[in-house]
Amino acid sequence: MFIFAVYIIGLIFTLMIAWCLGANDAANPTDCAVGSGVISLRKALVLFSIFVFIGAILQGHMVMKTLSKGIVEYINLLGAFTVVFSIVIWLILCTWRGLPVSTTHTTIGAVVGYGLAAYGFNLNLDVIIKVLLGIILSPVLSLIFAIIFFKFLNNIFRKFSSEGNFEKLIKYLLISSLAFSAYCFGANDVGNATGVYVSVTERFTGLPTRETMLILALFGAAGISLGGFTWGYRVIQTVGYGITRLTPLMGLAAELSSALVVWGFTTIPYIFFGWGLPISTTHSSVGSIIGVGLALGRKTVDRETVLKIVLAWVLTIPCVLVLSLAMFKFFSFWFW
Q1: Selection from 27, 24, 51 nearest residue 258 by Cα
Q2: What predicted TM-score, i.e. pTM, was given to this entire model?
């Protein structure tokens, strides 16, 4: 009975992580469209919810597989409980402060902390290195792509700016990019909420891995949608308006850049290696917005806001690592 109670409480924490994902990271697919004034916040969140579900169902298993068995060989029930509890604490703290902290970083830090507590240094360094490379490359690629896309689109816009329908087309494309970005978000980030509970849920339900992942993906997508509608506006305002003021053209370039980077890291490694690489959709989104700001000149970027965001990124992995390690040791000593 005690074991089952721990499992249920852990699932509740998993739902809370999904809620935090929606609250903290709904900004990633929606910030550009909302920040540029193309669509209202409420309509953006409706589109966000729909396409997060689609992405989680169709491709969520790609990253879920990586997080469930990648960094450490095996995550037991206490380990899964400790990981999700640590993630919830950190995400609620950062979301309350309005910081677009990466849930991917939070998850990686918590899993590594558990791994160090349970297995010492016997971790899968190959996976950790690849994740760290993704952390570094995703914002850089988004920034570069955003500059390229913006300059390309801006040149086209200048040639056809006299045609009134062209600006309307830009707005429709930006909304389409929002939908694609939300799809990619669901595919990549739902694993952060549910990945560590795949093996545990398999043992409790007796379901095959794929069916277990589908159920957890639906569970996670529901929590993400709820989080977006309740607290998502806080970070959307920080990223959509705080870094640099966006025009529809800037928003389109930024949204396309971020979405393509997230989709690429989710899909391409899975095709070649059998697993998707979890990256920070927050990094990608913010990197793309900085990119379009830089394309117009360095002065258009609010450096204070950027430094505030970067500080949260730098602190996340070590802070959550220590938190998860300490909690696992504490729970193991007193309750397990």
Answers
A1: 27
A2: 0.86
The candidate with the shortest Cα–Cα distance to 265, out of 278, 253, 256, 274, is 278
The band of 81, judged by pLDDT with boundaries at 50, 70 and 90, is very high
Contact between 250 and 157 (Cβ < 8 Å) = no
- Measured in whole angstroms, the distance separating CA 206 from the mean position of its chain's CA atoms is 29
CA 252, 256, 261 angle in degrees (round to 5)?
A: 155
Give the CA-trace dihedral at 28, 313, 151, 35, to 10 degrees: 40
Token duo for residue 165: 């329908």
What's the sign of the alpha-carbon dihedral 63, 64, 66, 67?
A: positive
Work out the percent of the chain whose per-residue pLDDT is above 90: 35
Query: In this structure, are residues 286 and 139 in contact, taking their beta carbons and an 8 Å threshold?
Result: yes
Cα–Cα distance between 121 and 312 in angstroms, integer? 26
Res 143: pLDDT:
93
Cβ neighbourhood burial of 124 (10 Å; 0-12, 13-18, 19+): middle
Query: Residues 329, 71: contact at Cβ < 8 Å?
Result: no
Q: What is the pLDDT, as a whole number, of residue 238?
A: 63
Query: Tell me, what's the pLDDT at 235?
Result: 67
Q: Which two tokens stand for residue 254?
A: 């930024």
Residue 241 has pLDDT above 70, yes or no: no
